[in-house]
Amino acid sequence: MNRRCVPAPRSLSLTRWAAAGTVFLLAGAPGALAEEERSGFYLRAGLGANLASGVVLHGKSNDRASRCDEFINPRYAEIPGCTDPGRGSSAGWQTAFDSAYGTLAGLAVGHRVSDWFRMEVETFHRESEYDQTSPVASATGDTAGKLDGEIVRAEDRIGSVSSRNVFLNLIVDLPAAGALTPFAGLGVGVSWTELDYGDLWVRNADPAKIATAAGLPNEDEIRRNLAATTTSKQGELSDRLTAFQALAGVDWEVNDNASLGLQARYVRSDAFEDETEWERLRSHASQLRLDGSEPVTFRIRTEESVAYAALNVFLKLRF
Predict the structure, then answer these.
(1) What is the pLDDT, as a whole number, of residue 248?
(2) pTM for the complete prediction?
Protein backbone atom coordinates (compact mmCIF):
# COMPACT_ATOMS: atom_id res chain seq x y z
CA MET A 1 0.00 0.00 0.00
CA ASN A 2 1.50 3.33 -1.04
CA ARG A 3 1.71 6.18 1.46
CA ARG A 4 1.73 9.80 0.41
CA CYS A 5 3.70 12.42 2.28
CA VAL A 6 1.41 14.82 4.05
CA PRO A 7 2.77 18.42 4.38
CA ALA A 8 3.25 19.59 7.94
CA PRO A 9 0.69 22.04 9.23
CA ARG A 10 1.57 25.66 8.58
CA SER A 11 1.48 26.47 12.28
CA LEU A 12 4.13 23.83 13.04
CA SER A 13 6.40 25.23 10.32
CA LEU A 14 6.16 28.75 11.79
CA THR A 15 7.02 27.36 15.22
CA ARG A 16 10.22 25.83 13.86
CA TRP A 17 11.21 29.10 12.20
CA ALA A 18 10.57 31.00 15.43
CA ALA A 19 12.70 28.55 17.41
CA ALA A 20 15.52 28.86 14.89
CA GLY A 21 15.32 32.65 15.08
CA THR A 22 15.49 32.58 18.87
CA VAL A 23 18.62 30.42 18.79
CA PHE A 24 20.20 32.85 16.34
CA LEU A 25 19.41 35.90 18.52
CA LEU A 26 20.72 34.23 21.70
CA ALA A 27 23.91 33.27 19.92
CA GLY A 28 24.49 36.85 18.82
CA ALA A 29 23.40 38.57 22.06
CA PRO A 30 26.55 38.11 24.20
CA GLY A 31 28.73 40.01 21.78
CA ALA A 32 26.25 42.88 21.53
CA LEU A 33 25.88 43.14 25.33
CA ALA A 34 29.64 43.06 25.84
CA GLU A 35 30.08 45.94 23.43
CA GLU A 36 27.45 47.93 25.30
CA GLU A 37 29.05 47.16 28.68
CA ARG A 38 32.43 48.51 27.60
CA SER A 39 30.96 51.95 26.97
CA GLY A 40 28.15 52.17 29.55
CA PHE A 41 27.42 52.53 33.23
CA TYR A 42 29.11 50.73 36.09
CA LEU A 43 28.70 50.18 39.82
CA ARG A 44 31.75 50.15 42.11
CA ALA A 45 31.81 48.97 45.76
CA GLY A 46 34.89 49.34 47.97
CA LEU A 47 36.14 48.60 51.47
CA GLY A 48 39.39 49.66 53.13
CA ALA A 49 41.23 51.57 55.85
CA ASN A 50 42.02 55.23 56.50
CA LEU A 51 44.72 57.19 58.30
CA ALA A 52 43.55 60.55 59.68
CA SER A 53 45.97 63.35 60.47
CA GLY A 54 46.61 64.69 63.96
CA VAL A 55 44.14 67.27 65.26
CA VAL A 56 44.60 70.50 67.22
CA LEU A 57 41.39 71.75 68.84
CA HIS A 58 40.74 75.34 69.85
CA GLY A 59 37.97 76.05 72.33
CA LYS A 60 36.42 79.41 73.15
CA SER A 61 33.48 80.30 75.39
CA ASN A 62 31.20 83.27 75.96
CA ASP A 63 31.37 82.57 79.69
CA ARG A 64 32.07 85.34 82.17
CA ALA A 65 34.63 85.02 84.96
CA SER A 66 33.39 82.62 87.64
CA ARG A 67 33.11 85.47 90.17
CA CYS A 68 30.34 86.83 87.88
CA ASP A 69 28.36 83.58 88.06
CA GLU A 70 25.22 84.10 90.16
CA PHE A 71 25.15 80.44 91.16
CA ILE A 72 28.63 80.89 92.68
CA ASN A 73 28.46 84.54 93.76
CA PRO A 74 25.00 85.88 94.67
CA ARG A 75 26.55 89.37 94.92
CA TYR A 76 27.92 89.34 91.35
CA ALA A 77 26.19 92.64 90.49
CA GLU A 78 28.46 94.50 92.92
CA ILE A 79 31.58 93.54 90.94
CA PRO A 80 32.62 95.89 88.11
CA GLY A 81 32.29 94.31 84.69
CA CYS A 82 29.99 91.43 85.67
CA THR A 83 26.97 93.03 84.00
CA ASP A 84 28.70 94.80 81.11
CA PRO A 85 27.06 94.22 77.72
CA GLY A 86 30.40 93.20 76.20
CA ARG A 87 29.90 89.75 77.63
CA GLY A 88 32.56 87.08 77.78
CA SER A 89 35.95 86.73 79.35
CA SER A 90 37.62 85.67 76.08
CA ALA A 91 38.49 82.43 77.81
CA GLY A 92 40.05 79.97 75.40
CA TRP A 93 42.06 76.76 75.43
CA GLN A 94 43.94 74.39 73.12
CA THR A 95 44.50 70.63 72.99
CA ALA A 96 46.37 68.40 70.53
CA PHE A 97 45.76 64.81 69.40
CA ASP A 98 47.84 62.28 67.43
CA SER A 99 46.83 60.71 64.12
CA ALA A 100 44.32 57.85 64.07
CA TYR A 101 43.32 54.81 62.01
CA GLY A 102 39.89 53.66 60.93
CA THR A 103 37.70 52.16 58.21
CA LEU A 104 36.21 53.39 54.95
CA ALA A 105 33.45 51.86 52.82
CA GLY A 106 31.54 53.22 49.85
CA LEU A 107 29.66 52.90 46.57
CA ALA A 108 29.94 54.73 43.26
CA VAL A 109 27.84 54.88 40.10
CA GLY A 110 29.83 55.89 37.05
CA HIS A 111 29.70 56.25 33.28
CA ARG A 112 32.46 55.88 30.73
CA VAL A 113 32.36 58.98 28.56
CA SER A 114 35.19 57.86 26.27
CA ASP A 115 37.90 55.22 26.09
CA TRP A 116 40.00 57.14 28.59
CA PHE A 117 37.59 59.37 30.57
CA ARG A 118 34.98 58.50 33.22
CA MET A 119 32.61 60.43 35.50
CA GLU A 120 31.10 59.05 38.71
CA VAL A 121 29.05 59.99 41.75
CA GLU A 122 30.47 58.44 44.89
CA THR A 123 29.23 58.13 48.45
CA PHE A 124 31.32 56.70 51.28
CA HIS A 125 31.52 56.60 55.05
CA ARG A 126 34.74 56.85 57.00
CA GLU A 127 35.41 56.57 60.71
CA SER A 128 38.73 57.32 62.43
CA GLU A 129 39.15 56.03 65.98
CA TYR A 130 41.21 58.56 67.95
CA ASP A 131 40.18 57.35 71.43
CA GLN A 132 42.54 59.91 73.04
CA THR A 133 42.41 62.24 76.03
CA SER A 134 44.65 65.31 75.95
CA PRO A 135 45.40 67.79 78.75
CA VAL A 136 44.80 71.46 78.03
CA ALA A 137 48.14 72.69 76.73
CA SER A 138 47.47 76.40 76.83
CA ALA A 139 44.72 78.80 77.82
CA THR A 140 43.83 82.47 77.47
CA GLY A 141 41.74 84.98 79.41
CA ASP A 142 40.63 84.20 82.96
CA THR A 143 41.32 80.50 82.44
CA ALA A 144 45.07 80.95 81.98
CA GLY A 145 45.91 81.86 85.57
CA LYS A 146 43.86 79.07 87.14
CA LEU A 147 45.63 76.05 85.68
CA ASP A 148 48.45 76.25 88.25
CA GLY A 149 46.33 75.42 91.29
CA GLU A 150 42.68 76.37 91.27
CA ILE A 151 41.88 74.03 88.36
CA VAL A 152 43.40 70.62 89.08
CA ARG A 153 42.20 68.83 85.94
CA ALA A 154 41.56 70.24 82.48
CA GLU A 155 41.32 67.98 79.43
CA ASP A 156 39.61 67.33 76.12
CA ARG A 157 38.79 63.97 74.59
CA ILE A 158 38.13 62.74 71.06
CA GLY A 159 36.51 59.34 70.75
CA SER A 160 36.17 59.18 66.98
CA VAL A 161 35.73 61.36 63.92
CA SER A 162 33.32 60.11 61.25
CA SER A 163 31.93 61.52 58.04
CA ARG A 164 29.32 60.76 55.39
CA ASN A 165 30.54 61.97 52.02
CA VAL A 166 29.15 62.60 48.55
CA PHE A 167 31.62 63.39 45.73
CA LEU A 168 31.56 64.00 42.00
CA ASN A 169 34.71 62.42 40.55
CA LEU A 170 36.42 62.91 37.18
CA ILE A 171 38.70 59.99 36.34
CA VAL A 172 41.25 59.41 33.59
CA ASP A 173 42.29 55.88 32.59
CA LEU A 174 45.99 55.83 31.65
CA PRO A 175 47.20 53.90 28.59
CA ALA A 176 48.34 50.35 29.40
CA ALA A 177 48.55 46.96 27.73
CA GLY A 178 46.81 43.90 29.13
CA ALA A 179 44.12 43.55 31.78
CA LEU A 180 45.60 46.11 34.19
CA THR A 181 44.55 49.76 33.76
CA PRO A 182 46.01 52.46 36.02
CA PHE A 183 43.86 55.52 36.65
CA ALA A 184 43.92 58.91 38.41
CA GLY A 185 41.24 61.44 39.24
CA LEU A 186 39.96 64.39 41.22
CA GLY A 187 36.71 64.89 43.08
CA VAL A 188 34.78 67.65 44.86
CA GLY A 189 32.01 67.10 47.34
CA VAL A 190 30.37 67.57 50.71
CA SER A 191 31.32 65.91 53.98
CA TRP A 192 28.89 65.68 56.90
CA THR A 193 31.38 65.28 59.74
CA GLU A 194 30.79 64.27 63.38
CA LEU A 195 33.23 64.61 66.26
CA ASP A 196 32.74 62.47 69.36
CA TYR A 197 33.88 65.07 71.88
CA GLY A 198 34.44 65.20 75.63
CA ASP A 199 35.51 68.05 77.91
CA LEU A 200 36.29 68.12 81.67
CA TRP A 201 37.42 70.84 84.07
CA VAL A 202 37.72 70.15 87.81
CA ARG A 203 38.23 72.77 90.53
CA ASN A 204 40.41 72.17 93.58
CA ALA A 205 38.46 70.70 96.48
CA ASP A 206 40.33 72.94 98.94
CA PRO A 207 38.51 76.30 99.26
CA ALA A 208 41.81 77.97 100.19
CA LYS A 209 43.09 77.22 96.64
CA ILE A 210 40.25 79.11 94.94
CA ALA A 211 42.09 82.25 93.89
CA THR A 212 39.05 83.65 92.06
CA ALA A 213 37.53 84.77 95.39
CA ALA A 214 40.56 86.64 96.71
CA GLY A 215 39.72 90.15 97.92
CA LEU A 216 35.98 89.98 97.25
CA PRO A 217 33.50 91.07 99.95
CA ASN A 218 31.99 87.56 100.31
CA GLU A 219 35.24 85.72 99.71
CA ASP A 220 34.52 82.74 101.98
CA GLU A 221 31.13 82.11 100.40
CA ILE A 222 32.59 82.09 96.87
CA ARG A 223 35.41 79.77 97.86
CA ARG A 224 32.96 77.27 99.33
CA ASN A 225 30.60 77.45 96.36
CA LEU A 226 33.33 77.06 93.76
CA ALA A 227 35.55 74.42 95.41
CA ALA A 228 35.30 70.90 93.88
CA THR A 229 32.94 72.02 91.11
CA THR A 230 33.20 70.53 87.62
CA THR A 231 32.52 71.72 84.11
CA SER A 232 31.95 68.98 81.55
CA LYS A 233 30.53 67.96 78.20
CA GLN A 234 30.22 64.63 76.40
CA GLY A 235 28.44 64.46 73.07
CA GLU A 236 28.50 64.72 69.30
CA LEU A 237 29.64 67.87 67.51
CA SER A 238 28.86 68.16 63.81
CA ASP A 239 29.58 70.33 60.79
CA ARG A 240 28.98 70.21 57.04
CA LEU A 241 32.24 70.73 55.18
CA THR A 242 33.16 71.21 51.54
CA ALA A 243 36.00 68.93 50.47
CA PHE A 244 38.12 67.71 47.58
CA GLN A 245 39.91 64.43 46.98
CA ALA A 246 42.68 63.05 44.79
CA LEU A 247 42.36 59.46 43.55
CA ALA A 248 44.78 56.95 42.06
CA GLY A 249 44.69 53.22 41.55
CA VAL A 250 44.72 50.24 39.24
CA ASP A 251 41.85 48.28 37.70
CA TRP A 252 42.19 44.57 36.79
CA GLU A 253 39.60 43.39 34.27
CA VAL A 254 38.46 39.89 35.24
CA ASN A 255 35.97 39.57 32.34
CA ASP A 256 33.67 41.72 30.22
CA ASN A 257 31.34 42.28 33.16
CA ALA A 258 33.57 42.74 36.21
CA SER A 259 36.92 43.97 37.46
CA LEU A 260 38.80 44.13 40.74
CA GLY A 261 41.03 46.96 41.82
CA LEU A 262 43.02 48.88 44.39
CA GLN A 263 42.39 52.59 45.02
CA ALA A 264 44.19 55.19 47.12
CA ARG A 265 42.74 58.57 48.02
CA TYR A 266 43.66 61.76 49.84
CA VAL A 267 40.76 63.83 51.20
CA ARG A 268 40.98 67.37 52.54
CA SER A 269 38.08 69.51 53.75
CA ASP A 270 37.43 72.83 55.46
CA ALA A 271 38.24 73.33 59.13
CA PHE A 272 35.64 71.82 61.47
CA GLU A 273 33.64 74.09 63.79
CA ASP A 274 30.59 73.69 66.04
CA GLU A 275 29.00 75.37 69.06
CA THR A 276 27.29 73.72 72.02
CA GLU A 277 26.42 74.07 75.71
CA TRP A 278 28.09 72.34 78.62
CA GLU A 279 26.16 69.58 80.32
CA ARG A 280 27.20 71.21 83.58
CA LEU A 281 29.00 74.47 84.17
CA ARG A 282 30.72 74.72 87.58
CA SER A 283 28.35 71.93 88.70
CA HIS A 284 25.17 73.71 87.62
CA ALA A 285 23.26 74.32 84.37
CA SER A 286 25.06 76.02 81.50
CA GLN A 287 23.82 79.43 82.67
CA LEU A 288 25.16 82.47 84.51
CA ARG A 289 21.87 83.67 85.97
CA LEU A 290 19.25 81.93 88.09
CA ASP A 291 16.51 83.15 85.74
CA GLY A 292 18.28 81.65 82.69
CA SER A 293 18.84 85.01 81.03
CA GLU A 294 22.53 84.37 80.17
CA PRO A 295 23.05 80.87 78.73
CA VAL A 296 26.69 79.86 78.25
CA THR A 297 27.98 78.16 75.12
CA PHE A 298 31.40 77.24 73.81
CA ARG A 299 32.78 76.74 70.33
CA ILE A 300 35.21 74.06 69.18
CA ARG A 301 37.15 74.33 65.92
CA THR A 302 40.10 72.56 64.37
CA GLU A 303 43.24 74.59 63.84
CA GLU A 304 43.58 73.35 60.27
CA SER A 305 41.48 71.59 57.68
CA VAL A 306 40.38 68.00 58.27
CA ALA A 307 42.51 65.55 56.23
CA TYR A 308 42.95 61.81 55.85
CA ALA A 309 44.32 59.23 53.42
CA ALA A 310 42.72 55.89 52.59
CA LEU A 311 43.44 52.67 50.70
CA ASN A 312 40.70 50.27 49.64
CA VAL A 313 40.00 47.31 47.38
CA PHE A 314 36.96 47.41 45.10
CA LEU A 315 34.74 45.35 42.86
CA LYS A 316 33.37 47.03 39.72
CA LEU A 317 30.41 45.66 37.73
CA ARG A 318 29.59 46.95 34.24
CA PHE A 319 25.95 46.91 33.19
Answers:
(1) 98
(2) 0.83
